[in-house]
Amino acid sequence: GWWDWKFLTLIFFSSLVDYSIGIALNKYEKPITRKLLLWLSVGFNLGLLGFFKYYNFFIDNFISAFTFFGNPISINSLNIILPVGISFYTFQTLSYSIDVFKRKISPTKDFIAFAAFVSFFPQLVAGPIERASNLLPQFFKVREFSYQNSVDGLRQILWGIFKKIVIADNCAEFVNIIFNNPSNFTSLSLIAGAILFSFQIYCDFSGYSDIAIGVSKLLGFKLMQNFAFPYFSRDIAEFWRRWHISLSTWFRDYVYIPLGGNRVSNIKIYRNLMIVFFITGFWHGASWNFIVWGLFHGFFIILERNKTIARFLGANSALSHLYTLLIVIIGWVFFRSSDLYYALNYLKALI
Question: Distance between CA 150 and CA 158 in Å, rounded?
């Protein structure tokens, strides 16, 4: 809003649409009407996100596909600016509509409280992605100053700032040098670059989450935990139970379980997992390297469902930790690279 007030209309209309749909879902009982209202919420939020974040990605790939088959076409891409936090607040309002549809929560009739829930500033731009069932009721409670909460909040803010500024930003100095010119470095240097980026992204993102949770404590609000020592995981499935918990549980509850979750055949479970991790990669960025990063993790989670592999990982603690770190660090190369071609060249030089 400080940068350009016009972008506030997006978060305002997103809030207004889902607030209105929540009330309408409570009003109507006919299943077909309620489903139409839900799909209106899904279409609006994903349409908003799709246009601002993915329009040029789809146009560029559409042109490339026709050119590949010998039919070049000309479609102009748009100079679209990605609004800050749109990936987070669209998911937050969408989860509210889905929960009201499933009758897990009752819709609020207080628009100010709902708008405050959507635009709650500590976690607005980078999460955690809060559920209405946890955060929204807290706006209706009388909050009193708590010395202990303030001490805990300030301690968590300080820890978050330390992780972000002291660790992440200093790692970034070396990571940028190595990733910007990988051809100038040896394999060991490229390995070091990938490891340093693993520290950078964890301390950057978890540091931000610590600051958001700490600031919320100062205001008397409790946010969900977003990271739980993910690099100590023993397999990739456990890594995703510990990394960006608010996002992974969002995809579990609103994508994986509705697709059938674990209650279907193995083939459909594998399909569901790959769909979830395809979307997870795509959510992080409109580029093929993010999609490959997501599918890369999905592949190893499917592999770990093999009983022999699962038993081996369970019986060999040190090897399982090493295996997880190796897969995660290789995956981060795809995440950090500017595109898929760059990532593959980096890994080729690294090997």
Answer: 12
**Cα 61–66–70 angle (5° rounding)?**
140
Angle subtended at Cα 297 by Cα 196 and Cα 96, rounded to the nearest 5 degrees: 100
Between the CA of residue 283 and those of 47, 75, 83, 90, 103, what are the distances in Å? 13, 24, 14, 12, 27
**Torsion of the alpha carbons at 53, 56, 57 and 60, rounded to the nearest 10:** 180
What is the CA angle 259-89-29, rounded to 5? 55
Q: Is the pLDDT of residue 27 over 60?
A: yes
CB within 8 A of 77, min separation 6: which ones? 55, 56, 59, 60
**In angstroms, how far is CA 45 from the centroid of its own chain?**
16
Q: What is the DSSP string of 147-203?
A: HHHHHHHHHHHHHHHIIIIIIIHHHHHHHHHHHH-GGGS-HHHHHHHHHHHHHHHHH
At 225 the three-state DSSP class reads coil
Cα radius of gyration rounded to whole Å, the chain = 22
User: What digits encode the pLDDT tens for the residues 38-52?
Assistant: 999 999 999 988 888
Catalytic residue of the set 244, 284, 297, 321:
284
Kindly write down the DSSP assignment for every residue of 115-142, as one continuous string: HHHHT-GGGTTT-----HHHHGGGGGSP
Q: Measuring CA to CA, which residue among 110, 114, 112 is closest to residue 132?
A: 114
Element (H, E) at 166: none
Question: What would the mean pLDDT of 3-13 be, rounded to a whole number?
Answer: 87
Would you call 321 a catalytic residue per the annotation?
A: no
Distance CA 221, CA 153 (A): 10
Percentages helix, strand, coil for the chain, rounded to the nearest 5? 75, 0, 25
Q: How high is the pLDDT of residue 283?
A: 93
